[in-house]
Amino acid sequence: MPADDQGTSVISYRGATAIVAGCIIGSGIFMKPATMAAQVGSPVWLAVVWLIAGLFSLCGALIYAELGAMFPKTGGLYVYFREMYGDFPAFLYGWSGFAVINSASVAAIAFVCADYSNYFLHIPDLPLELAGAWELPLPFLGKLYPLQHAGVKLIAVVLVLGLTWLNYLSVKAGSALQVISTVIKIAALGMLVAGILLSGKGSAVNFIQPGAMEKHGLALVSGIISALTGAFMAYDGWINVTFMAGELQSPRKDIPRSLTTGLLLSMVVYLLVTAAYLYVLPVDTMAKSPLVAEQAMYAALGNVSSTILAAMVVICTFGAVNGNTMAIARVTYAMGNDRLFFPWTGKDHPRYRTPGNALWLHGGWAVILVISGSFDMLADMFTFVAWVFYLLGAIGFFILRRRMPDYPRPYKTWGYPLLPLLFIVFSLFYVISTVWNDVSAFRSGRTPVINSLLGLAITALGLPLYFYFSRKNKKAG
């Protein structure tokens, strides 16, 4: 079990909550509200979408809180899948976590952090003709352009490797940085909200006044469903604390508490920041703004808005990169321990007592993903594949309730069975509709890659590895 230099579990309830909130609150609150406003056309419905997405995420968190309290082991969903379905589905999740979900989330958030860091660093990109000269074809799926955004990608690579090195050296240092960065980001967002709302340059009427594009009937239902996709992306990351259960001081208590506290805190932050935007930008104006956060800050604070926005995004995404870097390698570490992956990935560093090999493997793959893709592709890819497994995990939750009725459950999911069933229904809808939308966008030329199918294709690449390790274990056993 990874631990600190003294060989003890080091992550407190406060640290666990910082992992949840710090992994959730990243770039989404700066990038998603404008699109969501256009999809619903109403400030009231915009707030409702944030609430619905937050509550559904909380439903999922409550499911995994019960599972985490039942099986407080490093590896999270991978561990639960072994109990639910056996080695093969557990391996597929672990492989997809390495290849798509977890490393891609680090790459995507690091890309956004680097993009806004470049506002201060001014690292130039390659000329357009050179950036587009090398294309990497993906048969039946599209093309990638590794040389595009070279300056931003360089910053992202340094960020990923630097935070990987820190977490390689010490669990305690990574946890402390996560607490500090989360406190700073929430304080910074609080000052942003206060600065805009106290500027006197907006109107409270904007909180309830519908726009000219307000939707009704089936159009409203469709708009809410579309807006929910963006909101769910902004809330993603809550699962990460379960990956580190073996390093929590009191995992049976702290996993349920940190998941609930972290998600509720994130909901409050998202609602307050959206309210600040609306105060100075009527919903129609917000809907047409490609940079809603910058426009809102400019309306309230004047010419310093661009600098403030860049600093805010860097602060928020830096903590999210660190939180994800801390958590994600633990799944691969658990697989290595179980010899369902390369055994060296399941070894602790002899001095630092961290999953050092797994951390560097994830860091290296995240660097490759940074170089190969853009934010939108990576974000869409890891969000879709993650929700496929959230769905399977929720179904498996019912399997364990039936198969292991007497197993100790220090925490039981509130609202059972209704809320878990609602979570399953929504997850199924989200998975199906995402594939449909991705294929339609690719066929119409709006996207160069079918992101959801690319994620599934990379997941399928793990099949030969599973059969290799399975056969190797049978020979050894």
Notable characteristics:
477 residues; mainly alpha; two-stranded antiparallel ribbon; 20 helices; 72% helix; disordered N terminus
SSE map:
Elements: H1 13-24, H2 28-31, H3 33-40, H4 43-70, H5 77-84, H6 87-121, H7 128-131, E1 136-138, E2 142-144, H8 150-169, H9 171-197, H10 217-235, H11 240-243, H12 251-280, H13 283-287, H14 292-301, H15 305-337, H16 356-372, H17 375-403, H18 418-443, H19 451-460, H20 463-476
Helix pairs in contact: 1-9, 1-12, 1-15, 3-4, 3-10, 4-10, 4-12, 4-17, 4-18, 5-6, 5-17, 6-8, 6-15, 6-16, 6-17, 6-19, 8-9, 8-15, 8-16, 9-12, 9-14, 9-15, 12-14, 14-15, 15-16, 17-18, 17-19
Structural commentary:
This protein is an all-alpha fold. It contains 20 helices and two strands. The chain has helices spanning 13-24, 28-31, 33-40, 43-70, 77-84, 87-121, 128-131, 150-169, 171-197, 217-235, 240-243, 251-280, 283-287, 292-301, 305-337, 356-372, 375-403, 418-443, 451-460, 463-476, and strands spanning 136-138, 142-144. It has a two-stranded antiparallel ribbon. It is globular. The chain starts with 12 loop residues before the first helix and ends with a helix.
Residue fraction in strands = under 5%
Low-confidence parts lasting 5 or more residues at pLDDT below 50? 3-8
* Distance linking N and C termini: 23 Å
Q: What spatial form do the alpha-carbon principal axes imply?
A: globular
Number of strands: 2
Structural class: mainly alpha
Q: Which range best describes the helical content: under 10%, 10-25%, 25-40%, 40-55%, 55-70% or over 70%?
A: over 70%
Strand order of the largest sheet: 1-2
Largest sheet: 2 strands, antiparallel
